[in-house]
Amino acid sequence: MSTVRLTMAQAVIRFLKCQFVERDGKEQSFFAGCFGIFGHGNIAGIAQALQENLDFRYYQSRNEQAMVHTAVAYAKMKNRLGAFVCTSSIGPGATNMVTGAAVATINRLPVLLLPGDIFARRNVAPVLQQLESEHSQDVSVNDCFRPVSRYWDRINRPDQIITTLPEAMRVLTSPADSGAVTLALPQDVQTEAWDYPSGLFDRRVWHVPRNRPDAAALARAAECIRSAERPLILAGGGVQYSEATEELRAFSLRTGIPVCETHAGKGSLRYDDPLNLGAVGVTGTFAANRVAREADVVIGVGTRFSDFTTASKTAFENPDVRFVTINTAELDAYKHDALPLVGDALATLEELSRVLDGFQVDTAYRSTCKRLREEWDREVERLYAMRHVPHASQSEVIGVINEMGDPDGVMVCAAGSLPGDLHKLWRTRHAKQYHMEYGYSTMGYEIAGGLGIKMADPDREVYVLVGDGSYLMLSTDLVTSVQEGYKLTIVLMDNQGFKSIGGLSRSLGQEGFGTRYAFPKDGSLPGDGESGIRYLPVDLAANAESLGAKVYRCSGRQDLVEALEQSRAIDRTVVLYIRTDRYEDVPGYECWWDVPVAETSTMEGVRRARTEWELMRLKERTYLGRGE
Questions:
Q1: Strands 193-197 and 3-7
Q2: What pLDDT sits at residue 627?
C-alpha cells in the first residue's frame, strides 16, 4: 500500500475530513469543522494542520467550555448525525473543556476533543502548565477527561492514530455509546511525521443502524401492554434522535395510549396533539402527573428515567406498575426491572405496533386524559396572561416569546428555574422547537448552545432564554455569534440573583441564603427576607451591548412585545433585557423532588422542612417485578 508522509496532526485533520455518516439512505459529512483556541500545546501541530486544510473550517471561540457547548448543541440539533471537533492547548484550556465533555457524555451526544498534552519525550519536563505527579510520569491534567469521556486515549507515537481514529469514530457514531471522545495529543508528537498508509484517508461512510429488538422480548412486551388498563408512554430524547416522532404519533393514535414527555423528549408530539399530556415529573403538568400516578404500564421510549422524570421514584404510585422500555442502550432499557426492548426507537415502535394490532385503551380512560389535557391548556393560558407588576413574571415572558416568536424557531435553555417553567409551559409546534440541556443542567450553556443550533440550521430563528446567573457564568460567545454572522435573539431575564436556588433554599427553610446579588450586610450576604438590601451596580444590558449585540431594555410586558417585533429587522444578535420577579413562581404540580434537609438545625424553618421531607421520603419506591 502506498504511503503519505504527514505530521500526526496533519494526518488527524486529513482523516476527519474523509468521514461520512449514513442512515436511511441519507449520507452526509460527519464533521462540520473545528472550534479552538490555540496555545503552545497545539499551535505548531493542530493549528498548523488546520491552516493547511482551509476546507475544514476553523472557528475561533472565546472560551473552551463554551465551544464544547456549541458543539454539543450542534450535534443535538443534527440528531447525532453531525459533530464538531474542539481543540485546546494543554493546561487550563484543556481543563476548561471538562465540563463540556460531561455535558456531551451525559446527554449521549458526539463531540471530538483534541486537547494538547505534555511532551511525550519527557526530557524537557516539567514544562509550562504541567501537573507533576510523584507516582507517575504518565499523567497530565487531561486524565481528568477519563470519567467524562466515552472513549479516551493518549497518543504517544504518531502511528498510534492509525488504530485510534477508527475506534473514535465507532464511538462517535454509535446509537448506544455516543458521547465525548477525548484524544490527548502531546505537543511534540503532533509535529512528528510518519509514513501513513494512504488507505487511512479514503472516504469512509459510517452506517448508523436501526437495530430491532429480540422477537421473544417483543412478544412479552406486547402481552404486558395488552393486559394494561391505564398504559402511559413516556417519550425521551431517543424519540428525537431516532427521528421517530411521526411513528410515535401514529402508535399513540392507533392504540389511544397517552404520551408524556421528558425534557429531552419534549416536542415528540405537538403541544395540541389530543394525546399529549405534556411534561412529566418534578417539572411536569398536573395532567401528566395524575395519569402517571395511576399508570399500570409505563412504556419508556428513549429515556434515562432521571430523578426529575420519576420525581425521585415517587411519580408512579400504582403498586402493580410495570415498565416496558425501548432503548438502544442496555443500561437504560433494563432500568426499573423493565421488560427491555433493546433497539432503535423508530424501528421498535414499528415492530411493537404490528404485534399490538387491534389493541386500544378503553373510552373512559381516553375521556379522563382528554379532560385533564383541556384543563391543563386553560392553566397555561392563565399563566401566559399574567400582568405582574412592578416586574414581569417569568411565565408571561415565556408566553410572549412562545406566542409572538417565529413558530418555526427554536428555543434554547439549560439551567435555573427557567427549565422547569419552560417544560411545563412551552407549547412545542415542531420536534426541534424545544432545546433543553437538562442532562447536566449546565449554567452557561444557553448562548453557546444557541450558536450551535443556529450553525446546524441557519434558516431557523433561535431564541435563547437565559437568567442573569447563567449569563454572568458564560456570555463570551455572544461575540462569536456576532463575528460569524449567526443571529441569536437572547431574552435576558434579570432577577438579581439565583432565582431557582433561592426558591429551593426557601423550601428547605433556609431563607434564600447566598442567592442574592447584593452587597454584604453585617458581614454576610443578605437572605431573601431581609430589608435594606443594597443591590450590585451591574448593568447587564450595557455588558451585552459592549459585546456587539443590539440591546433593547424592556421595562415590562408591552416593551418586550414591541422589542421582539422590532428585533426581527435586525441582522445581528439581539438581546431583550427585562427585569423579572424572583418570587413569582409557576406552581409545582403534584410532584416532589428529593433534596435532603439538615437533620438537626437551630432554624425553625429547617426543622419543619425536615419533617415534611421524612414523610415524602417514605413514598420513594424501588420498582421490581416484570410480571412475567
A1: antiparallel
A2: 46
